[in-house]
Amino acid sequence: MKRARLLATAAVLVLLAGGAVAAGTRGAPPSAPRYVTDDQGRALILHGFNTAGSAKGAPDALPELTPDDIDREYRDMGTNFVRFLILWRAVEPSPGTYDMKYLDKVAERVRWYSDRGYQVMLDMHQDLWGNAITPTGVAGNGAPAWATHTDGLPVATEQFTWEMYYLEPGVIRAFDHFWNTTGDYPDLMDRYAKAWAAVAARFKDVPGVLGYDLMNEPWGGSVQGATFETGPLATLYRKTIARIREVDPDGWIFLEPQAVGVNWGLPSALPRFDDPRGGPPRIAFAPHLYPLPLDLGDDYAAGSKEWTDRTLGWWRENIARTAERMRAPVLLGEFGLDMTRPGASDLVKKVQGLSDQVGTGMAYWSRDADAWGPYDAKGKATPLPGVYVRAYPRAIGGVPVSVTYGENRLQVAFDANETGPTEIYVPERGFPNGAQVDGGTAVWNAARRILTVTTKTSGRVILTVTPK
Ligand SMILES: CN(C)c1ccc(C(=O)NC[C@H]2N[C@H](CO)[C@@H](O)[C@@H]2O)cc1
């Protein structure tokens, strides 16, 4: 029965997302991927986690996290990136008042990461709009109560899956007010954009802050699909890009499509956005990936594996087409699943392969201490660390051409430039005694397991990394 209901739910949501399908999946094949770059201009391969869902309901809006947690994550997986959740309710507790104490606490945690060589993306997170959609605050997260207007419309709390809250009249109304679909609260999007400007002003010169993910999994309320993405969502993005660029000319700005449909592999209609900064644009496309069969409760095994692989193919093609339209690099902002389920490790490997094809970095959902994360509620490793760890180029001193991962072998091809040396992480597994590099001059940092490789600064370079 539950599966039938879930299938019906998915059908409804796909219909809602129908406009996105109108974007079509034909057209010229995608060209070479682009890359997010660091402050030296090197191409980044971002590999990390979402930290963390525990922030959503926390009174202080901060994740359960200690520096030791980051040390363990690095020891086990050599990650170099974090999608760090922040919440509008904490940034702007009352209209026009920005909580600098909260932002200072975020900055303290950002420092924990940057001191360890991580890149940090700040994610203005929401699910279901905000915790004020129900009187008990048990459902949503993100938006402050003062920006939540359900007009007294019902929000039933006995949902069989949390996603169903998105279809509740009161939740749809709250989103409709925000997107100015109702016309009753025309200032809300501007306030959101100004809140982002306050965050960017605080973090624009903070080491390690790579950029800003403007809204987690946007939902159009009663406006869906291409109409939503090219209408209200694009308006919010343009307002927020302008506000951020008034204070921070250099931070990367990450734009998400609507979640429904696109998470599953349907096309996004997000248009291209101008970046008013002087110099090359720093706007990236940041979709999520949650295959529909798995969302419906199936495992990546047996019959569902074939169906899931088909949807992964859709996702890859459609993401590449949207990135091409946006002329933007791609960052996979979320993917994840219950690591205790059959086939879970195979799915993670499959997504890593997809990510390599699209030339994107990735942040796994999530770093929380549960069955989805790398360590469970008792701190015991799940299968995730064993499959999420691999040798990879953290930063590339040129324009990447290909990154080829083999069993205990990595090959990185790029057209070199003068941005700086190439940094390669090499795990203990497979490379117990470190690595040797053909194609460049490597300095080995045994403590951090990083090869810093100096190469010529023009022409094609091919680095081959093998165990010592
Ligand atoms: C109907 N709508 C709008 C909808 C449905 C399902 C998701 C979802 O599963 N998202 C995947 C994960 N992303 C969030 C955090 O961003 C996690 O809580 C979800 O597991 C999102 C939106």
From TrEMBL:
Tell me if 4Fe-4S is a UniProt keyword of this record. no
Species in which this protein is naturally found: Nonomuraea spiralis
Q: Glycoside hydrolase family domain location, by residue?
A: 44-367
PANTHER family, per this entry?
ENDOGLYCOCERAMIDASE, PTHR31308
> Top-down, what is the taxonomic lineage of the species of origin?
Bacteria, Bacillati, Actinomycetota, Actinomycetes, Streptosporangiales
Protein name (Swiss-Prot/TrEMBL)? Cellulase family glycosylhydrolase
- State the family it belongs to: Belongs to the glycosyl hydrolase 5 (cellulase A) family.
Q: Show which residues constitute the signal peptide.
A: 1-22
Span-the-membrane segments of this chain are none
